[in-house]
């Protein structure tokens, strides 16, 4: 589960990672004004959504007084940031920034350990820094010997030094990193990212932003896990949330081929053949066992409403599910959806596959292509997605 910034800061604070003084969580401009009045002086008005780039989108504004805080909050409430509509704002005492750095801890699956990423060039898009100036982003795997009883202080200092943090920031940054690592491990996080980590004008090093993901599989050992779920904050991905509501297993990826199949194993294999054909899946969706026309419609609608989807690969193996019913389901779904721009490549195999293909061929729908094998279907879908 992804936490929003103010929750990440709460989690940091209880693990002694330095953050600005606690602010106020607000749901109306009146609450923002009251919070700014009670904090006093210059405040920062920050949208709380589960996506990055809030600053660029106008979702983070510094306000010199309470009236201005109120005014900017009216612009921020309702703002759509990458599909996440702002309903909650966090008001915090504004920090005086001298410099902005980047620091994160995550799992390192390759090395079966942890990875620390640190850069003296924070505050901005770290992926961009990594592309244009990869040497400025230090990526340090931690050895098991580094992390016995916590991250060794020497190792933390070595990392922030290697990242070229200025002399006067190194000691406090190393202390902070040791605590960040504790927070990561104690809280069963999968990501703890601070961008920017700042040096204030009076020389302190604190986390000005917090992006924390917690491992849902470890929820059983955290009594307060469910308390992180609060009203007004969208789920991690709007489409995933809709799928969850409809009881459909849907995962968003970042390619251009929508993948829809029945059964987790087949769906995984479908991702592989798409990759083998030189493509990238945009998402994958498991329609499960007996997919009715209605479930098919909901599933197709979900896959197609992802703007990255340029073509869809429907891969069905009929076992208990009959392919003729699936074929009718697909056609029924397309009827319900009306005009769509993307083409569907459908591969049916197993129970009543021939009947299913006949139904699709006879319908002669302009957006549906029937393929005989998985490999062929993948090639077609990738070609369509590439040329679209
Ligand atoms: P993000 O855009 O979603 O990553 O949101 P951040 O919390 O990182 O804020 C974006 C930028 O706003 C930061 O890099 C800072 O430059 C600026 N900012 C955020 N909080 C403060 C603050 O308290 N004081 C000042 N002066 N700038 C801030
Ligand atoms: Mn940030």
Give me the secondary-structure topology:
Blueprint: H1 5-14, E1 24-26, H2 29-39, E2 43-47, E3 60-63, H3 66-76, E4 80-81, E5 84-85, E6 89-93, E7 97-108, E8 113-119, H4 126-132, E9 137-142, H5 153-162, H6 167-186, E10 189-200, E11 205-207, E12 211-214, H7 238-245, E13 249-252, E14 257-261, H8 264-276, E15 281-286, H9 293-304, E16 311-318, H10 323-337, E17 343-350, H11 353-363, E18 368-371, H12 374-387
Parallel strand pairs: 14-15, 14-16, 16-17, 17-18
Antiparallel strand pairs: 1-6, 2-3, 2-6, 4-5, 7-8, 7-10, 8-9, 10-11, 10-12, 13-15
The chain binds guanosine-5'-diphosphate (GDP) and manganese (II) ion (MN).
Question: Globular, elongated, flat, extended or rod-shaped: what is the shape?
Answer: elongated
> What bound compounds does this protein have?
guanosine-5'-diphosphate, manganese (II) ion
How far is it from the N-terminal to the C-terminal residue, by CA? 34 Å
Mean pLDDT across all amino acids: 93
Tell me the strand percentage band. 25-35%
Describe the structure in your own words.
The protein has helices at about 5-15, 30-40, 65-75, 125-130, 155-160, 165-185, 240-245, 265-275, 295-305, 325-335, 355-365, 375-385; strands at about 25, 45, 60-65, 80, 85, 90-95, 95-110, 115-120, 135-140, 190-200, 205, 210-215, 250, 255-260, 280-285, 310-320, 345-350, 370. The protein is an alpha+beta fold. α2 runs antiparallel to α3 (about 65-75). The mean pLDDT is about 95. The protein binds guanosine-5'-diphosphate and manganese (II) ion (MN). Manganese (II) ion binds near residues 195 and 209.
